[in-house]
Amino acid sequence: xxxxxxxxxxxxxxxxxxxxxxxxxxxxxxxxxxxxxxxxxxxxxxxxxxxxxxxxxxxxxxxxxxxxxxxxxxxxxxxx
Length: 80
Description:
single chain, 80 residues, 4-stranded antiparallel sheet, 4 strands
């Protein structure tokens, strides 16, 4: 049997995470959000890039880093 203390501590230790976006093969070390906040790109230690749509919580694209790619970032274009 567990007392109220256990439930209290269990509740305090839980994450505030609302959703998980994708699964990377290794730890994610950097992310970038689009200016409109609708997309996020992350890169893991092994060089895997993943682009996610926030609203649908789905992976839009996955790319394995190749020679000399830089970290993720979004660039504003003339049409938005």
